[in-house]
Specification:
12 helices, 2 domains, globular, Lipocalin, 26% strand, 9-stranded antiparallel sheet, alpha+beta
Length: 537
């Protein structure tokens, strides 16, 4: 099970010949590596008697590693409070021939949100944070602003469930880049604007969880990293878990790789509460066991069962996000909740960015938890997780399929009369406003003029509501499409090349919403959203 927070940019497979050559190259590299240095033998896997049933899954993972699909993978499975399988496969560090184990630390990416939300609930239960107060009540001098709606309605709960009106956002800063990671306060100044009214729409946003990390720090009086270590990781026995790479954990860290095998430099984020936690399969399954209310003997109950239930309750402004999900599905506080047609409930989160693919799923009714971690971006952790779930619950997961390989083709765009015509206005950036004009023709062609650049066609145009691919539920119809052009801000330009995604809603003869710049670099810097407002001539 996995979220789909950004438009699908996955690559298709190249073809049989290319795959054969890639495998041949991998064999040569492996032979060379083995000749050049001694082989490090991994520790034997941790298996219980129940783990024999995973033989086919293990064989599949070994095939993926041998075929070069993933550098390494670590899995762990627990049932009824007992860890029944934990094992690492492949190399966590190809250059130094270091094997992956159940204790290898992987960047979790967005699974960090489930852990950050747990830290938040500690403060809620201590009476220091109220989920239904405005997020601005807990921020410092730099506050969120509203382009639409009332910012006071951007509550902590709505921030945590991605329904406060914040746009898509992520900024990654790599060690080999000449840019320094800004403080979260500077990110709020530049991008902390509501682009839809609170409660109007579900929109996944890393910025929201960056804000929750800031709330944790502001309210607790500790750094986000220190609070999470002392109040979450240590009490739950998560000894190989930290915000970023903690002291003493450097040797256990996996190296991140692109699908082509390039090393991804260490990176930082401007919203650490959303994506900065590193953990191992062993630690993450312990975290899952706690959230199944099957605390291990050496774990401290850091939040109550009622708080766990609150986190796993879908927000009323969210809904099903996948074809197999039914009533009762949505996003809670740091968790996706998916309910099958038969009523089986899964509580899950995944993470995905450059050099990272991670999955964590809980099935409370069955006392079951599964985690799969990998150090490259691919669909395989999703696939392996589903194989494990089907192995354990063969009659209850048949309708659940793996990740879609392609987007559904949009029907031809047919503009409504109120859309046809010329629209003029601006994109508002932290470096000033940039002119943007649209000409929407009766034929469905949409011409775009960005700043003083040549006029181009808006591509893949659509105008409809309830588009699950974009994690957009409710809020009316949005005009969407890809456009060409240069926005011209330093933040966006450092992600060159990039594509811009336009997403506008008609409100009282005004089209407004977001222009989102998606970095197309091999090592992406992330999407950045900017407010757009156009008036019809």
């Amino acid at each position: 099970m996995s979220s789909n927070s950004l438009p699908n940019q996955s690559r298709t497979n190249a073809g049989i010949m290319k795959k054969f050559m890639s495998m041949l190259t991998l064999v040569v590299i492996c032979i060379t590596a083995c000749w050049a240095r001694p082989i490090t033998t991994p520790a034997p896997p941790i298996l219980t008697a129940d783990a024999d049933q995973f033989s086919e899954v293990r064989a599949h993972i070994e095939q993926l590693v041998a075929g070069g699909e993933v550098p390494s993978m670590a899995v762990a499975v627990a049932r009824d409070g007992e860890i029944i399988w934990k094992e690492g496969f492949g190399l966590a560090d190809r250059e130094n021939n270091i094997p992956a184990t159940e204790h290898t630390t992987y960047a979790l990416a967005s699974i960090s949100k489930s852990i950050t939300a747990t830290g938040l609930m500690i403060l809620v239960e201590r009476g220091l944070v109220n989920l239904d107060n405005s997020i601005n009540d807990y921020l410092g001098e730099v506050k969120l602003q509203a382009r639409v709606g009332d910012v006071e309605d951007a509550t902590v709960r709505r921030i945590a469930s991605h329904t406060a009106g914040l746009p898509l956002h992520a900024q990654h800063y790599y060690d080999n880049d000449p840019y320094q990671t800004p403080l979260i306060e500077e990110t709020i100044r530049r991008y902390g604007y509501l682009v839809t009214a609170p409660g109007e729409r579900y929109q996944y946003s890393n910025l929201g969880y960056g804000l929750l990390g800031l709330v944790i720090s502001s309210v607790s009086g500790q750094s986000y990293a220190d609070f999470m270590r002392m109040e979450v990781f240590v009490p739950l026995g998560m000894n190989h878990t930290s915000v970023h790479i903690g002291p003493g954990l450097e040797e256990a860290q996996s190296v991140k790789y692109t699908p082509e095998g390039l090393v991804v430099p260490p990176c930082d984020s401007d919203s650490p509460g959303a994506s900065a936690i590193y953990s191992s399969a062993h630690d993450l399954i312990r975290f899952a066991i706690f959230h199944l209310k099957n605390d291990l003997p050496d774990q401290k109950a850091i939040i109550s069962g009622a708080a766990i239930d609150e986190m796993q309750r879908p927000g009323p402004e969210t809904g099903p996000m996948k074809e197999w999900e039914h009533e009762g599905s949505g996003y809670g506080i740091g968790w996706f909740i998916g309910v099958t047609e038969e009523g089986l409930r899964g509580v899950y989160h995944n993470g995905g960015t450059v050099g990272v693919s991670t999955d964590l799923t809980l099935v409370p009714e069955e006392g079951l938890a599964v985690t799969v971690l990998s150090n490259t971006h691919s669909q395989w952790p999703d696939v392996i997780q589903i194989e494990i779930l089907r192995t354990l619950l063969p009659d209850r997961f048949e309708e659940i399929t793996g990740p879609a390989s392609e987007l559904v083709k949009e029907p031809p765009f047919v503009p409504t009369p109120d859309l046809i015509g010329s629209w003029k206005g601006f994109i508002y950036t932290y470096e000033g406003r940039k002119s943007l004009n649209l000409e929407i023709e009766e034929s469905g062609s949409v011409f775009v003029t960005l700043r003083n650049q040549p006029r181009t066609l808006l591509q893949n145009v659509s105008y409809r509501e309830d588009c699950p691919r974009w994690n957009n539920f409710g809020g009316g119809s949005f005009l969407r499409g890809w456009l060409s052009g240069e926005l011209g801000t330093e933040d966006v330009d450092r992600g060159r090349p990039y594509k811009a995604w336009l997403e506008l809603k008609l409100r009282d003869n005004v089209l407004n919403g977001s222009l989102i710049a998606f970095s197309q670099r091999e090592i992406s810097t992330g999407p950045l959203a900017h407010w757009v407002e156009l008036i019809k001539e």
